[in-house]
Structures are given as structure tokens and as C-alpha cells.
Design a protein that fits this description.
alpha+beta; 5 helices; 3 strands
Length: 144
């Protein structure tokens, strides 16, 4: 075997290891759920922060609309924070090569978007709404 053959074999083995680690991390992150209970409201979110379950107790329904809105918003934020902490724990235990890539992605995402934002048009809102409901109808309303 030549040096090039050895190098190719080591590289192929390393790529296989990275692929396996990526699949394990992907599965671990897909299983993550953040959860919070506050003021009669329970919210569960996935690793991206999308709501997978929302429960409102009868007692919470008897509060004012502003109290209920605040309870839902606060609980949602707490559930997202819980999911984010779990994702960070999963990343800390992941392959170091994946952690480095994840840090690069996180840094890129944290850069401010210099493009000016504009309000969505009614057609864009409708399209986003349709996409959400299509995804929920396809994947289910509770991803348990």
C-alpha cells in the first residue's frame, strides 16, 4: 500500500466516524423536548423551539385575556430555554469535530441580519400559515 492509499483509508474511516456521530447527534436532538408549566399553561417544544404540545387548564381559561396571553408567552419562553439547554448538553457530549461545526453555525446565526426587514404581505402570511398547517397535518399535532 502506498502513502496515498493509507491516507485515503484513514480519511474514509474518519468520514465514516463523523457520519455515525452526526446520525447519533441528529437522533438525540430530534428526541429533545423542552417543557414548562406556569399558571395553568403547559408548553412543550422541540429542539427548534416549535410548539409540539400546548395545554391550557380550565382555571387559566378563566383569567383575563391579557393574563392568559402573558402566561402562554412566559411558558413558551421557558420551554424554549429548557430545550435550548438540552441541545447544548447534547452538543457538549457530541464528537468534538461536530461541536466545532456547531459553534461555527451558531456564530453565523448570531450575526445580525443586515438586510432591512419588512412586514410580510398578506399572501406571504397566508403561505406561511398554509405551510404550518400542512406540516402539522402531515407530521401530527403532537410529536410524541
Amino acid at each position: 500500500m502506498t502513502d496515498v492509499d493509507d491516507w485515503e483509508a484513514r480519511l474514509a474511516h474518519e468520514l465514516d466516524d463523523i457520519r455515525a456521530s452526526t446520525q447519533q447527534l441528529r437522533a438525540a436532538v430530534a428526541a429533545i423536548r423542552g417543557r414548562a408549566d406556569k399558571h395553568g399553561v403547559t408548553v412543550e417544544v422541540d429542539a427548534r423551539g416549535d410548539i409540539t404540545d400546548l395545554r391550557i387548564s380550565p382555571a387559566a381559561m378563566r383569567t383575563s385575556h391579557t393574563q392568559l396571553s402573558t402566561a402562554i408567552t412566559d411558558t413558551y419562553r421557558a420551554a424554549r430555554a429548557d430545550a435550548s439547554a438540552k441541545v447544548n448538553r447534547a452538543l457538549r457530549s457530541a464528537d468534538p469535530r461536530l461541536r466545532a461545526a456547531a459553534e461555527q453555525l451558531k456564530t453565523a446565526r448570531s450575526q445580525p441580519n443586515t438586510a432591512p426587514s419588512r412586514p410580510m404581505t398578506e399572501d406571504e402570511i397566508q403561505a406561511a400559515d398554509d405551510a404550518f398547517f400542512e406540516r402539522r397535518n402531515r407530521d401530527g399535532w403532537t410529536n410524541r
